[in-house]
Amino acid sequence: METLLLLALAAALVEVSVPGPPPRLTIVSHSFDIGRCQLNVRWNASAESVNHACKEYHSVVWTDGIATDALLSSSTDRTMEVELGKNLGFGVREECGDMRGKWVNVTLQQNGTAGTGAVNIECTWFMEKDVECSWQPGKKAPAGTHYTLSYWHEKMKTREQRCSNYTWSKGSEGTRFGCRFELPSSSGLPKLHLLLQGNTGDIQPVCVFRGDTASYIPEIFDPPSISNLSNVRDGILVEWTRPVNRNNLCYQVEDNKKNPYYTFMDLTKEVIPVEANEQHTFRVRVSQRCDTCPRCWSDWSKEKVWKPKDKPPDKTFKILLCTMIPFIVIVLTIILLIYLKSIRRLILPTIPDPGKFLKLMFEDQNEDLQKQPPEDPLKDEQTHPLTVMEPIGNEN
Q: pTM for this structure?
């Protein structure tokens, strides 16, 4: 009986014996798809690994010495997006539970000369409509080097698109080149794939990823608009409208008589503690962040002027007015008493009695009728006879 138990135990121990560590990988090959910013890697395991009961591979991409894009899979090939222009490497090892093999690492050789690719790449999203990306030439890039920008995101129908609206500017940090392209989106910025290539084969291509969960792209919005100004107890109430349907935005209100600005988080109205009896000019701007991105502020809104409606009079004038009013009243009263009769005549002139006027008129007419008419002057005229005398000496 004891012998049978020992045989059964021995058989069980043989069945659960732990396998040894997985053997090491032997071959690693790689290639780049520059247009898509992708790395294609294939590795070949040894014959012992092929026949092994546990076959899983842990792979990582080394970007400037930092392990990224770790993946555990049973496949012996992998395709992944990489940031060309940086120091890249790839590593893979076999794993089986707690048993891990040794890393097999390879340094990824890239096209072009290191240090000639574009650097200091920055992108900005304007008003949810356009994206502008800018860069500077690499330190080892020859003079006269030109770069072309290609971009792609998941919402595009074609795989990649070349930017055509190029610009350049010169500032304190040197010359910056840029390009602007359309990207309308009301649901947030998708992940952007950006490829910068030089005008010769010696210039190293550079791939970067922006937006989504990749590197942050600041958004610059349309400026808000001031909708109303009103007088309240503690100052002037400034009200403005949101430029987009977003929350957690930062606003700054500028008063032409105060410095610095008044900063508010996720508000559309606020009381500015200023004198309401003075004239003020207000402007508002908006940003995604209050302090961490100075270049993310929108343009200022149109100015809106506050003019006091009822400005209190000067105290000296008030005292003088209160003194002069009683004096003026007294003087006017005396003048009225002295010239009351004259003033009354001016105000109420004498109206003649119509009866008396008619009586006088008829009396004059009666007197004219009662007068004797003058005698006829021909009545008393005397008549004398007329004697006609003939001349003498003319008788026949």
A: 0.63
